[in-house]
C-alpha cells in the first residue's frame, strides 16, 4: 500500500504541475552549464514541497513558485544549487568533474575530490551500465589505474581475480575486500567441482550507483586488518528529492568465442600419426588404434571429419531486462529496482539465469533523526560443466581424434573415443549450482548538534548455495547405476557499526571532519554434503532415489572481529590538507598472544593552485601535491590457522582422534606498509592529470613451516617472509571538444607494477612448484622451466639449453638433446608489468559513442596442455595446426621436432610451451541514439534511447594460445589447460524513462 500511496502522490504532483503551468504566477527560466550550453533533464524542486519539474531539451523550465521562494536545482555530475526564484532567471550549474566537487565514498563517510589526500579510483553508473557482462567486476576492466581485473576463462560463472596495485601476498588471500553500502560482502568460493564460482555474480550492475576502489593505505586503513589487498566500495542507487521516475532497460545479445585454435582435420591427423608411427617403427600399432577410433568408417579417406572445437564452443545469447522506480520528497526518498539476466554461454551446456531485486528507503522522521533501510535479494541458477582438468569437460574434447564420430547414427554419444566423450556427460549428467543472496541494512542518523551526528548501522549478508551433481547410469566412469552428489552451504555475516561524525568550519578557514566509532563483525558458515548411489533408473535424480547413501560430510566454522576506528580530516583555506586515521582490529583468527593489531595511516596535501602566486593562472588551473603512509593487514589466513587441531580418525566403526596441526599462539595477520606520492594537475579547465608512485611492503607472510615428525604434525603456520610491490600510475582526462552540439572526452590510464620476493622462510630457500618458483629477488610465482632451444636440423631432436653452472660461476649455454642434462631457469612472469586503458566518449546532438581499449604487457602464459596438443603426434590426441611445420628432413629449420609416436621428443615441461601474452583489446564499444525530447514526450515518455553495445570486439595480440586472458580454473598460476576463451558479445538495447 505504501508504494501505491507514493505513486498516487506522484500522480497528484504531476497534476498540480500541469495546473500550475496554466496559472499566471509561474516562474520560468533556463539552466545552462559554465559554457552557456543548455542542460536538458535537470530536476528543479520547490524546496519543502512536492512541486517539481524538469528542463526541456533547450534547458527551459516553468514551475509554480512565487518570487523569492527557494528552488533546489540538481543534475547528475553537476553541483546542486539552491537559488531564489525570479521570472526569466538563468541558472548556471558547475560540472563536478571540472571543479573537483565530485563526492567519493571513503568508508564511514564521504569526501569531495578536491579535499582528497588519498588515492581512490571511481567509476559511476554511466561508466558500467548497459555493458553486456554477467558480473559487475568485468565492467571495470580498463577503467581504473592500478586495478587489474581478470576472469579465469569464458565460463559464465568463471572466477574473477582482481589485483589492486599488484600482489600483497603469496599464500594468504589476494582479493580485495568488497563493501556494499557498508556491508562487507561474503566472497568465498564454495564450488565443489574443481572450478571456482564468482559469489559476486549475485550483484547486478543496474542497481549500482558508483564503485570506489581504495588503493592506498591512507584510504584503506579505516578497514584495518582486511585492507591490504585494497577495498572496493559499492554504493547502490537511492531515491532523490523531486519528480518520480520510472526506467526500463531491455537488451538482447549474441556471443561467440574471441578466438579458436586451428586443429588438424582428419586427413592431416591420419598422415601425421602414420608418419610418427613410421619414425619409431611402430606403424602397425598406430593403424590398429586408428581402426578403433574410426569404428568401421573409412579413416584412410577422411569419411569422418569431426570438428570437436565447434561442438564444444557454441553461439551464446544474453538477455537483460531491468527496471527502477525512484523519487521522493523532502522527507521520504525511495528506490525500487528489479533485474533479470539470462546468459547462455559460449561453452556447451553452460548457462546462467539470475534475478535481482532491491529496495532502498530513507525517511526523515524529524529535523534531527533520519532512518532508512537497504534490502537486496538475488537468485542465480548456473548450469555448469566440469573443471578444465576433467576429461568430461567440453574443451578437452578437442583432444579427441577427428576421425571419431561425436554421435552415432541413432543420436547417442559415441562411447568409443580416445578419451571419455564429453557428450556422454552432456546427455547423462548435470551440475546445477544455485546461489541465493540476501543483503540488508537498517540505519539511523541522529543529529545531536548542528555539526555533530551519530550513526548506527546494522548490516547483514546471507549467501546460500546448493549444488546438485547427477550422473546417470551411462555417464562417464559410472559403475554404480547412477549417483547423486548434493551440497548445501549457508554463510552469514553481520556487522553492527556505531560512529560519531563531527563536521565544522571555523572562521571560514579551518575545516574539520572527525569520525570515531566501533564495529562488531560476526561470520558463520555451515556446510553439508551427501552422496547416494545405485538408482533404479535415470528418472530418479535426487539423493532419496538411491539405494545407498554411501558418504556424507558436514562442518561448521565462524570468526569474529571487534574494532575501534577513527579518522580526522583537516583543511586550512582549502589548500593545506591533512588526514590521519587509525583502526584497532581484534580477531578470533589470530593467535591468543596477537589478538589485536593497530593500523595507522597519515596523508597530507597541498593545493598549490590556491596560493596567491597561482590562484589566477589562466593555464595551470589546478595543482595539488599529496603523499600518504600507512599500515594495513591481510586477515585471510583461515579460521583456525593458529590453533592446535585434531581431526576425526575412525577405525573399524570406532571413533578416534588424530593430531593434525601444531598451534602457534603468536600467529597473526600479514602486515602491509604502504607509501604513496602523487601530483594532480589541471590545465585550462579542460585537462586533468594525475601521477602517483606507490610502494607496498608485506611482511609476516603466512607459510607452512615443516616441524619434526616426532611432533606428530607435518608443519606449523608461521609469519615468515616479505614481498614488495611498487610502480607508477598515470591518469589523463581531457575535454577535447565542447560545443553546443558536440562533446568529446578522453580518459587514459597506465600503470606499471613490479612484485618482488624480498625474503622467505628457511633462510630464503626457494619455494618450487611444478612450473613456478618463489625466489628472493625475483617476481612472485615466476615461471621456472627448462629452456627450450628448438630443433637439431640434422636429426629432428628437440634441444634444450643446459644452463648448468660452469667452474667460473657462469651458465653453460650449450644445448643438449638429453632433457635430464638441462637445468631449470626463471623464464617468465605470470603477472603483467604494464597495464593501460583508454576510453573515449563522444556526444553529437542525440548520438552518443563510447569505446574502451585495454592493454596488458609483460605477462606470460604456460600451456600445460602443450605436451598433449602440440607434441607432433606423441600420442593419439589431435594436434594444433602448427605441428604441420614439424622437422621431416635433414636441414629443415623449425621449432617443431620430428614426429615420433610415444617418443617424448620435446614434449617435456619447458619454455617451449611458455609464451608472452601481451595484448590490446577493444573491451567495450557502445553507440546510442536518444530521440528528441518533443518526440518522446508525445509518447508519454521523458526519454528514449536505443543502443548497440559490445564486449571484447577486437583483440590485437601475437599470443598463439586460446586467448591471452584464458587461464585454467582448477589450479595453477598463469596456466592455460584446455581453457575456454572469453566471449565476444554484441547486444542491442533500449532504455526508456518516464
UniProtKB/TrEMBL annotation:
InterPro entries: Beta-barrel_TonB, Beta-barrel_TonB_sf, CarboxyPept-like_regulatory, Plug_dom, Plug_dom_sf, TonB-dep_OMP_SusC/RagA, TonB-dep_OMP_SusC/RagA_CS, TonB-dep_rcpt-like. Keywords: Cell outer membrane, Membrane, Receptor, Signal, TonB box, Transmembrane, Transmembrane beta strand, Transport. It is a multi-pass membrane protein. Residues 1-22 form the signal peptide. It is found in: Cell outer membrane. Its main location: membrane. Residues 399-934 form the TonB-dependent receptor-like beta-barrel domain. Residues 113-231 form the TonB-dependent receptor plug domain. Belongs to the TonB-dependent receptor family. This is TonB-dependent receptor. It comes from Flavobacterium hungaricum.
